[in-house]
Amino acid sequence: MDAQISGGTGVGTTANIRSNFPNVRSNLQGPSSGNGRRMTSKKTRSKKGKRRKRRRSKKTKTNKTPPYLPPELKLVNPTHYRFEHLATQLKWRLQEGRGEAVYQIGVEDNGLLVGLSEGDMRASLKTLRRMAEKVGADITLLREREVDYDSDRNCRKISEVLVRKVPDDQQFLDLRVAVLGNVDSGKSTLLGVLTQGELDNGRGRARLNLFRHLHEIQTGRTSSISFEILGFNSKGEVVNYSDSRTAEEICESSSKMITFIDLAGHHKYLKTTIFGLTSYCPDFAMLVVSANTGIAGTTREHLGLAMALKVPIFIVVSKVDLCAKGTVERTVRQLEHVLKLPGCNKVPMLVASPDDAVTAAQQFAQSSSITPIFTLSSVSGESLDLLKVFFNILPPLSNSKEQEELMQQLTEFQVDEIYTVPDVGTVVGGTLYSGVCREGERLVVGPTDEGRFLRLKVGSIHRNRSACRVLRAGQAATLALGNFDRSLLRKGMVMVSLKMNPTICWQFEAAIILLFHAKTFRRGFQVTVHVGNVRQTATVECLHGKEELHTGERAVVCFRFIKHPEYLRMGAKLLFREGVTKGIGHVTSLLPDSIAFKSMSKARELTSGGPVCK
């Protein structure tokens, strides 16, 4: 199907086709040779000899001709059957891309930039617009470039077009972006400018709507986790509070939604920042660096956390209006140096034009090593549009097949926040990890301090501050639980289906790497463990095969929670810390309650110099 739509029409999608055709270029660039012939990988010797003769004969000619473009490679006046076939393929590509796809017109399957004449390009775009209207989508021309051939007086063009579904029944594409960076780097101000649609006055006016507590307004420092939304409609236009009064209006008008998770920058609130990264499952991370201070404070630590949790990260250098050009360039050079270090192994990409923003968005989603860098100002608005273009084109990391597989599983909702709302009752906020949750559904929540799960009923669902009837895997929302006793709930619990038999554990094993420790890491050491939405102090029961660990060493470690049991998943990412001690890993095995009790009793009997776990 991919070969037919791209080879037969001269149109390819960057979101889905590259996995099958690795030769398709991710960005528009000039042809590598003037003759523009299409090279294939597997040829016999006789065919190679014939091609060499053709090359020699063509080299003797004085004028070069562009490659002949067969009529079927153009989207010009297709037959009714052909049009229906193309529309069906477009619908399939939109489903695969979760509502959006990028088409390249005038580009062959192998990435050769053939180009179309002015008239053919207009006709092809008109046909693509008709196809989009048939499947309920809009098209947006991202960029257009000319392809020059010596003998062709009429220049040929290639175009890159974004096709996006018109929003229906709240089924918009939702991407979560965690905002990291040192204190006073301009994170909340930048989000205020993006979501409110008004520039800052230089004294932090734009960030006031984001703060949740009085002391945050007084100090200007974020200490809690807050959420802000930025929408894009089917035509790629920004939808924010400057055009809409409420979040519900933004959701109704948007085909794509960017949910920003504003995290704290001060080192004092590091546990809150880590909780936001591990619990809310961000798709991407935006590291904000102040141009006048450079890499300072918690910048390196936040960069390391995002990389340890394998969250794709891009960088925004803010406050460029306060600095000379040389200062901004020095900060960018510092960032490039840090990103290229062996521990990072990133490829920095400075975004300076809309063309760079399109290329950065496409390559960033395909390769984890690409790290785009933006330089902008929230006061003057310099280069702010480049960041909006980047967010508009940024594709999701998961495709529709992965989404469907998660939805087929049993319901599992992570409890991250707990509220009491007047006339509503107890409300929990979090992320649906798997399955589908509907209004009126009956679930069980736990584990409690005694290790039990309690029955409850979901009253209503709100997503992005607007009512929603159905919640699907990967989406964040708040659920109303009615008169359910709030004192029985806590952060770190899960709400699961009645059909599921959840396993709770006091004790678990994890394969870890010790990132840093001042002395030696050994049995009896206590650390704060972060696994998803779980955050609790745990004791190191034993190290398998070793008596102690030093910085940079790996081992399988047995941890035991000290306060209450938790619900964990096999293979879940783990991060632990205590002071300057930090480590990462993943859960390898869970010990049921009975086994954990025996292990705990045995561990208490052992002396400090007892035997090592085998």
From TrEMBL:
Gene name, Swiss-Prot/TrEMBL: GTPBP2
Q: Name one GO molecular function term.
A: GTP binding
Asked if GTP-binding is a keyword of the record, the answer is yes
One family name in Pfam for this protein: GTP_EFTU
Query: InterPro entries under this entry?
Result: EF-Tu_GTPase, EFTu-like_2, GTPBP1-like, P-loop_NTPase, T_Tr_GTP-bd_dom, Transl_B-barrel_sf, Transl_elong_EF1A/Init_IF2_C
Domain Tr-type G intervals = 172-400
Composition skew (Basic residues), residue ranges: 39-62
Q: Which UniProt keywords apply?
A: GTP-binding, Nucleotide-binding
Q: Which PANTHER family match?
A: ELONGATION FACTOR TU-RELATED, GTP-BINDING PROTEIN 2
Bias-annotated ranges (Polar residues): 12-35
Q: Which family does it belong to?
A: Belongs to the TRAFAC class translation factor GTPase superfamily. Classic translation factor GTPase family. EF-Tu/EF-1A subfamily.
Name used for this protein in its record: GTP binding protein 2b
Region annotated Disordered sits at 1-73
